[in-house]
Structures are given as structure tokens and as C-alpha cells.
Amino acid sequence: MSKMPRRKFLSGAATALVGGRLIQNASGAPMLPVAELTGAAPLIVSTWPFGKPANEKALEVLRANGSGLDAVEAGIRVTESDPNNASVGLAGIPNADGVVQLDSCIMSGPGHRAGSVGALSGFRHPISVARAVMEKTKHVMLVGDGAAAFAAKHGFEKGPKVSPGQFAAWKRWKAEQKRAEKNHDTIALIALTPSGDVFGGCSTSGWGYKLPGRLGDSPIIGGGLYVDNEVGAAGATGLGENVMRYCGTFLVVEFMRQGMHPQDACLETIRRIARLDPKGFDLSINFIALDRKGRFGAAGTGTGFEYSVTCPSFSRVIQSPGVTTADIGPVGGNRK
Ligand code: ASP
User: Which domains does the chain carry?
Assistant: First the structure.
């Protein structure tokens, strides 16, 4: 995913960053926290610009009195169906064996329920299978062949294990005997409903040419996604190995519980991980968050990343602040 350089974004939109938050536009009108200004619910936040049509679908479902789970599922299915998305759904980059293995999970604030699938091959909508795991079994997570057998038994739509274009690219990659490439993204989508409940889901094909059987953070509750109906929700995208070792989204939600604004909670989570991790800021991780008050935010390593925010009064892509500076003191604390 190409990232707009932060400077370009700032000058282009004539915005000001204060305390990590965009606060005004060229005419001095306040920009954030937009949700506070609109007092808007429903509010939907997702990762990357490709999340915007997913948000809009989720909003449509909520406006038609659909449930929070219906909205999350329908939104993520939009991204999973996109034949041009190489990191979500069956058009995604396959694993090292040339097979697309999908990871996904879903959570409901009410009831604190969760469902998840990992390394699922041959089904178009892992988010729907994850929801069925939550609603039709006593379990939270199914993986691999077991997940596929469950999906088949419940009649979920099948699809090719890899797209023709990705298969051709995989053959070239295989011939060159390169190491697995870090090409990956995830749709994580979190929603606040008019009733004040929170929901979320995420879906990805994971790290391109990954080892078969590799699970990233996206199917891990508290890793790629966490929802707590007392507080809010958080989602992650980036190198899952650097999120799941720190229970990244759980940490974001816990910081919000302590009173932090969602944006500060995302920034602080990245700072915490960078302080501890041998990689310092070289983590490639990004978080989105919203709280029950209808506030939202995001942060990423490097120059930040773009995320999508949708509520009844607007739908747009926003550049998150990045975390690169040494304002937190030495990073990489566990280097030895
Ligand atoms: N977190 C995903 C994974 O590690 C990939 C991404 O979001 O970039 O599988």
C-alpha cells in the first residue's frame, strides 16, 4: 500500500497537527475530533482507503436498521469481493505453496462474543465464516482444514484457491527463489451503532508468500481486533508478528479505558511496543480506534497511514499521525 508522505498531505489539506491531532483546516475551521463535533453515531472507522466503500456499505446497513454485526460483515464483504485487492479475499497474494490462506475475525460488544477463522482456503468470505463460528459453535476459532470443512458444511460460497493473476506472479516468485515478501494489508472495520454498542471485524490474506499455516494477528482476538462494549474498539494492520506479540488492539482499548482519546491510545500503543521491541520503530504497525463517545483516531509507525472514517455527515480518508521521533527516549529496549 503506497503511503502519502505526511508533509504532502499536510500542505495539500492545509491542516495543522497539534498533539498528534489534526485540528483545523485552511480557514481555521476545526477538523478533529470530527465525531465530537457532529456527535455522530453511527460511526464507522476502517483501515486504508479501500475501507471507505466498506464503511459506506456498513452505514447503509445500519441506516436500514441492520444490526452492528450485519453492518460489519456486509462492509468487510465488499473488500473481500474486490478482484483488485491483493491483500484481502481470494484475489489476495498466496502463501509459499501458491494457495491463498485467509485470516479473519469478528466481535460483538454486546455479549463480548467473538468468532475467528485462520488459514482458510477456497472460501470467498472468511468474515461470514468467522461470524458463523461465533454464532453456530461453542468455539471462538477454527483453522485450516477444520475451518474449511465447517465452511463447506454451512454452505458458504466457494472460490478458487488462488486467482490466475496471482498464480502467475507466484510462479515467477517461486522460480526466483526469493524469500517471502512483506506485501500485505488488512481491512479492520470497527463500528459504533446508534444504540451505543461497538462491533468490529477484520479480514486479510496475510503476508504475501508466507509459510503455509502462518497465522497473522488478524484472526487473533486482542491482536488484530478487540472490542469492549464498556470502552470502544480497535483494529490493526501491518506486520502481524509485531502486533500479536504485544496484544496490540487489547492494549489500545485498555489505554482508552484509562481515559485516553482513541488517537492518543493508538499513539501510546506504538510507543510502548517501540520502547520494548528489538526493532524499535521498524515495526510496520498501524492501529485504528473509536470509543463509545463517538471519538476516533489512528496512528502508524513511519509516516503514519491512511484510514477511512464514515458517519452520516461525511465519509473520507484521513492520514494518521506517524510515530518516528525519539520523543519517547531510547527504543528497542529488549535488544539484548
Ligand atoms: N496484519 C496482517 C498480517 O500480518 C497484514 C497487514 O495488515 O498488513 O497478516
Answer: 34-324 (3.60.20.30)
